[in-house]
Amino acid sequence: MTEKTSQSIELLPEAMPVKQLFILLHGVGSKPSDLVPLANYLKEVFPGAAFLLPEGPHPFDGGGNGRQWFSINSVTDENRVARVNEVMPDLHALVKQAQDRFSVLQSDTALIGFSQGAIMALEFGIAHDGGVGRVLAFSGRFARLPDKAPELTTLHLLHGQSDPVIPVAYAEAAIARLKELGGDATLDIAPSVGHEINAALADHAIRRLQTHIPLRSWKKAMDGA
Q1: What is the radius of gyration, based on Cα positions, of the chain?
Q2: Is 8 part of the annotated catalytic residue set?
Q3: Does residue 162 have an active-site annotation?
Q4: Which domains are seen in the chain, by residue range?
Q5: Predicted TM-score of the model (pTM)
Q6: Strands of the sheet with 8-11, listed across from one edge
Q7: Pairing mode, if any, of strands 58-59 and 20-25?
Q8: Do 49 and 22 meet the contact criterion of CB atoms below 8 Å apart?
Q9: What's the pLDDT tens digit per position in 11-41?
Q10: Catalytic residue among 8, 61, 107, 195
Q11: In the chain, % of residues over pLDDT 70
C-alpha cells in the first residue's frame, strides 16, 4: 500500500500491526521519491515494516521542486551545526508521531539518511540518544564531530570510496571518534562507488540490520554473566 501527502511517501505493510518503522531522509535538492528504490529493497527483507519518506521542510536553494533540510547557501563548518539544530525539533516530532501512530518502540525504529539526510540522521542519533534503535547514514557526515557517543542508538555509516561530494575521510573520522568515545558504530565502505546508494551499500545496510548485535546488548549479557 502506498500513500502520498504532498511529496511525502508512505509504504505500509499489507497486514497490521507494524513490526518495524523505517524513516528515510532524502538528500539536498532531492525528493522523497528518490529513496523509493531503497525503501522497496528493504521492504522485501522487512515486509512487516512501515516505511515513511518525508520531504525536507524547505524548498531547495538551487531551485526546482527539490527540498532540503537546511540551507546550503554559504554553509560552513561553523554555521552548519546551528542550521541542523534549528530543524532538529521538527524531525524529532516527526519521528515521535510516527512511532505513536504505529505503536512501534524506539528500539524497533531505524532512521536512514542519504547525504544531507544522513547529516540529519547522525545528529539525531547524538541529540536524541535512544529515540531510534538504529541510524543508517549513507554518504553522510556529522555537522561537527561529536563530543559524546549515544548509548542506546547504534550508528551504521555506509560510504562510497570514491565519493566526490562528501569524501570518505569524513566517515573514517566519524568512526574513529565514535570508537574513541566507546560508541556502538560500524563503517562499511564500497570500492569504486561515488555519492550514491548502490546495491553493495544497500546490501551492507541489510546485513547490519539483520546481524549486528547492539553493543548495549553485549554489555547487558556481560553484566549478567
Answers
A1: 17
A2: no
A3: no
A4: 2-224 (3.40.50.1820)
A5: 0.93
A6: 2-5, 8-11, 49-53, 20-25, 109-114, 134-138, 154-160, 185-190
A7: unpaired
A8: yes
A9: 999 988 999 999 999 999 999 999 999 999 9
A10: 195
A11: 94
